[in-house]
C-alpha cells in the first residue's frame, strides 16, 4: 500500500512565529529541524499503519527545506514542479497525508494563513466554494482517485480540513493567536500524535473516498489588487469578472495546477 505525504511548513509543531519559515531569517535553522521531526513522525506512522512505500514531497515555497542527513531512508522524496504539486502521484496510492499545513487566506486566528501567494491571492474558489491549499491539493489528488487521509497543522487548518472531508484524521499541534503567533503543543507530544494519526489514517485508508470534481470545473481567483488581475486576465481562457477577480473553466482536478 503506497502512501503520499505532502509537507508544508507553517503548520509544523513548534513553529510559532513567521521568522522560522523564512530562508533569510536566523530562526529558519530551528524551523527546518522542527519540520524534519514532524515529517519523520508522519513517515514512521504511515509505515506503522501498513504502508509498503512512502513518497514525501517538500512543498513549502517550492521545496528545498529538508535536511538531507535527517531524511528517513525508508521513504523516497521529491519536490513540486511548475505543473504539479505532487509529481509522482497517481492512482496507485492509497491516500494523501498533509503535514505542516495552514488555513486559507482570511481565516480568523489562522497561524500564517494564506492561499498560495500571501502577497497577491485574496480568495480562491472551486465551483463557488472558497478553498485554501488543503482544498486545492485534495481536489488534485481526487483527480487520480486518491483520497485525503490526514491533515496536521494548527487548529484552524484542521477545522478547514474536517469541513471539506468529514471524518478524516486531523492532528492539531498549535492554536493561532492572531496571524503571526501561535501557542504550541510540546514537540514530543505533537510528534507522538502525528505518528499515531498517520498510522490510523493509513490503516483506515479504504474507508475514505476521493474528492472527485465533475467537469466543467469553475475556478475563480480574487486578488488583493486590480493590477494583479490585469496580468492574469491576459492569459488565454481567462475571463475578467470584476476589478480583482478572474475566472476560468477546466475539465479536471489536475488542471487546478498551475492556477
The Cα radius of gyration reads: 17 Å
- CATH fold-level assignment: Rossmann fold
Q: Largest sheet, if any?
A: 7 strands, mixed
Rounded average pLDDT: 96
What number of structural domains do the residues give?
Answer: 1
Classify the secondary structure makeup into a structural class. Answer: alpha/beta
From the structure above, extract its key features.
259 residues; alpha/beta; Rossmann fold; seven-stranded mixed beta sheet; five-stranded antiparallel beta sheet; 25% strand
Describe the structure.
It is a single chain. The protein has one domain (2-115, 132-207): 3-Layer(aba) Sandwich (Rossmann fold). The strands form 2 sheets. It has a 7-stranded mixed beta sheet, sandwiched between helices. It is 26% helix and 25% strand. The chain is built from 5 helices and 12 strands.
Task: Write a short abstract of this structure.
26% of the residues lie in helices and 25% in strands. It has 259 residues and is an alpha/beta fold.
